[in-house]
Amino acid sequence: MTPCEAHRRFAAEHPHFPGVRAPEGCPEEVATPPGLGTLAVTGMAALGRFLLGGAKRVSPKTLAARMAICAGLGGREACPQWNPKGWGGLGQCRKCGCSGIKLTWPAERCPLIPPKWGPEPPATP
User: Fold this and answer.
1) pLDDT single digits (tens) 32-63
2) How many domains does the chain have?
3) Phi, psi of 58, deg, nearest 5
4) Rounded mean pLDDT, 86-97
5) Would you say residue 122 lies in a domain?
6) Alpha-carbon distance 62 to 88, whole Å?
7) Which residues pair with 82 in a beta bridge?
8) Which structural domain, as residue segments, surrounds residue 71?
9) What pTM value is reported for the model?
10) Which long-range contacts (CB under 8 A, 24 or more apart) does 5-8 make?
């Protein structure tokens, strides 16, 4: 059994250890999008953070950087978890199920471990 196979087996048998990282060189597995119930719960939590933060949007610079990471814009390779055909062509993260709307909300972060992008830092006056 290779180290990558051992990691996949451990991750499948022990889902309560989500932070265990694969050995270097293992290909990233593509997640199955969450079900409707999970999507509703996580979406409502994200919406709550957005509203509690004053319903503000990220800066154009932050949005462009996040889109480049997820969708592979600006000459970057797309994240393997990004499905450009999801949500009727809007695109969808296979890990969290978002349509990309979370890319525009300041408090959100990439659901991967480690995250590929994080919350937007508060603007300095």
Assistant:
1) 778 889 888 988 999 999 999 999 999 999 99
2) 1
3) -70, 165
4) 85
5) yes
6) 24
7) 93
8) 56-125
9) 0.70
10) none
**The amino acid at 109:** R
Q: Confirm if 99 and 91 have CB atoms less than 8 A apart.
A: yes
Within 13 Å and on the Cβ side, how many CA atoms surround 121? Answer: 3
In a domain, 71, yes or no: yes
Q: How far apart are CA 107 and CA 50, in angstroms?
A: 7
Distance CA 37, CA 41 (A): 6
* DSSP three-state, residue 53: coil
Dihedral sign of CA atoms 84, 101, 114, 4 in order: negative
The answer to whether the CB of 121 falls within 8 A of the CB of 106 is no
For residues 80 and 103, give the distance between their C-alpha atoms in angstroms, rounded to a whole number.
17
Residue 115: how many other CB atoms lie within 10 Å: 12
Q: Burial, 108: exposed, middle or buried (Cβ in 10 Å; 0-12, 13-18, 19+)?
A: buried
Q: How far apart are CA 108 and CA 85, in angstroms?
A: 22
Whether 74 maps to a domain, the answer reads yes
- Asked, for residue 50, whether it belongs to a domain, the answer is no
